[in-house]
Amino acid sequence: MIEYTVDYGKEVKLDCEILSTPLHNEVYWVKTITSNDTRKITSSSRMINITPNGSTLNIKEARSSDAAKYRCVAVNSVGEGYSSEITLIVRGGIPIVKRTHEKYKTAKGYSVTINCMIESEILKIQTVYWKVYTSRTAKPHLIRNGEVGIDGVNANYPSLIINEVSVSMEGEYRCCAINIAGDACALPSNLIVEPILDQSQDENGNTSVEMTESVVGIIGGILAIIGTLIMAYKKRNAFTCKEDKYTV
To answer: How far apart are CA 240 and CA 180, in angstroms?
Structure first.
């Protein structure tokens, strides 16, 4: 098997040598994407150059869709002849964008970081932005680098940092990236904004901010103990003063 590798957007030529007696009268190429998807490329596509001794399939600007297996086919009065299979690998393509957590919890007035990871082979990331879906808006709001109260959202640090969260920011957040091949977005992360703070983490490592019943109970118990000690101290002082008054 023959293998060609080309970077996204670059030119590549697949060559085929033909030995035919009698001389071939037709040449075409077959592109196989999957076992159920095979396409015929004819000379009318302007991609094929034919000579008496062979043929060249010329792909001027390779795209991800060009990655496939190719075979050259020559036809004469006897029948058809097929070349060996040529595999074309195209390096690069649209970005791969991933979330790290499905859910984030925080409280009003606090900061939160919604994490995002971007992979882009060969091709430079041109733009990073976030899509935000809330119950207050019918269409998604776009967050871009440089907005007031926002940090991150760039190729070097794509995660979204909200410096001061408000209740209206609760919703669904998706990280998106663009390169010359196209754009892609991660699965959504949900931001939940609660009014009471207790910094903790769930089993997935997601930040959780809430005042739990157990914490409230512990604080109440401590206050009760302090109150009891104060009352005992006051009674002890009163008893001592009474004894001093009647002592001769």
So the answer is: 87
Lowest mean pLDDT among 111-115, 140-144, 234-238: 234-238
Among residues 32, 24, 27, the alpha carbon closest in space to that of 15 is found at 27
DSSP code of residue 46? S
Neighbours of 184 (CB within 10 A): 18
Interatomic CA distance for residues 217 and 203, integer angstroms: 23
Q: What is the mean pLDDT of residues 160-170?
A: 95
71, containing H or E segment:
strand 68-75
Strand order in the sheet with 160-162: 112-114, 160-162, 150-152
**For residue 245, with 0-12 CB atoms within 10 Å meaning exposed, 13-18 middle and 19 or more buried, which class applies?**
exposed
Sign for the pseudo-dihedral over CA of 219, 221, 223, 226: negative
pLDDT in tens, 185-204: 999 999 999 987 555 544 34
Which is it for the CA torsion 237, 239, 245, 248, positive or negative?
Answer: negative
